[in-house]
Request: fold
Amino acid sequence: MQQPTNKHADEKHYANPRSSSTIPSTPSSRQQGLLSILPAPWAPYAELMRLDRPAGFYAFYIPYLIGLGYAACVADPIPSPTRLYTLSGIFFIGCIILRGAACAWNDNVDQEFDRKVARCQNRPIARGAITTTQGHTFTAALALAGAPLFLVLPVECSYYALPITILFGAYALMKRVTNYPQVVLGFPFACGILMSCAALEVDALSEQLCLPTLGLFGANVLWTMIYDTIYAHQDLKDDVKAGVSSMAVRFADNTKSLASTLAVIQVGLFIVVGWQANFSLIYFLVTCGVSAIALGSMIARVKLNEPASCAWFFHRGFWYVGGSILIGLFGEFFARSQRLEVLNSSAVISNYLWGKT
Reply:
């Protein structure tokens, strides 16, 4: 596969032009930014966690923010902004650790594939900077490092830790057995929505909230399928040669049609969420309307045969589409907060006046 030329391309590795059998077990040539200030022995582990490439972090973190925004809109009593800020900070730290563990596991499992794919062949394990045993040990250490975060969250949040871990672990193996690993990937990401609801002590799967919650969950799964399939087009030719399965390989030239269909269903699910949850016009205009425009225009614009364009879609999608979803949800929350404040003030004034008479 042609090497991405966009300097912002996620996971760009400056592939070694030599064959995989001659990849040197030396530090990455991309020693800049965070990697340049770390002690040399630490740099490969920072690479393994993708600390030098933040774009993929948004895929982990945004579902938790979506869950917080949604739960804040349906919670009773309504949570304070301070609580939302606190939880978003906890999940921010948790997602750094979760992403690091997921990437470390994925790179270890996929090291033979990575050596055959130009964009991935200079990853730390693939090039030999980290051994297989060191990679597994580091993965386990990260998993343990995330455990204390559950001490400051409601116990219900811990119920989602096991399925998220299992699903991320399974995803790394799916490209060997199915053309639809992106479907599997969507589920652990979307589980972040449920964990965020639990963090705000919202029973997201209660009889009243089950339908809108599942609609939001499904919309996130579809969004993951869209952006990860387009992202996988960067490696399409190399993946075919290496025997890697994906939706990009399965649909190839029909990916835009598939992405457009999934996008329509995704927006339809957002509409169901707002309808079932009795959200206001703010949600429908921004979360449904603006995100639909952003997603549709990006699908139309992306050039699947250009790796840099696929990377652009992956990067900007989290800002344009994800940002629209979040602005609509948190706009709904703040509007609800203001309505409640007005109602409470009116009740106080009314009680005062009636008391006077």
Observations:
- The longest helix spans residues 307-356.
